[in-house]
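Our consortium's second objective concerns turning raw sequence data into structural hypotheses that experimental partners can test. To show how far this objective has progressed, the report includes one record in full. It was chosen at random from the queue rather than selected for favorable results. The single chain below, 187 residues long, was entered without modification.
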Amino acid sequence: MKKKFGLFPLLCLVLLLTLFLKPVPVAACSCVMKPSVDKGYSRSQAVFSGEVIGIKDNNGLLGRRGKTVLFNVKETWKGINETEVAIATGSSDGDCGIAFVVGEEYLVYARLSDMYGDESLTSIICDPTTELGNAAEDIAILGQGQVPTQDVKSVDNGKSTVLIGGGVVFIAGLLAIFGWYRVKRNK
């Protein structure tokens, strides 16, 4: 009888944790060929060229959830006017991600999506995003872009604060359960 009671707090903890877990959405890329410049432009909320100045892996509760890529924007054709912008993409081509490289320049087609968490500008391998050196044809069709005028530095979406707070609450809950268990066990 004593062993059954010993498992009760653990069972309660597992049940409590399941209340806070939500299903992870699954997405797969199925793109035979990238869209034309006109189609890519029309379905994108933002089109810009810029240099990658930072890449951050977004680790979710159940594993990786893509990455955030920070750009220093050089020229913009649609949707943004900031000197820096962050977009989401997958961790690899297996989850539709683009293998951006820090220091490289790209022509980026991005649209709003919640594919990698909260809704944000997102670019995937099915978009016509490409290295700037390979984008001469795209730029010829797009024409002259605008230099962004709204000066911003290092975009921070505040997710780290939420994750740290959630972690503190979780650890405090675990300590309370284990403390309760020790008190009950010593009686």
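The partners drew two points from this record. The chain has two domains: 2-22+164-186, 37-156. Residues 2-22+164-186 form one domain. Both points have been shared with the crystallography group to help prioritize constructs.
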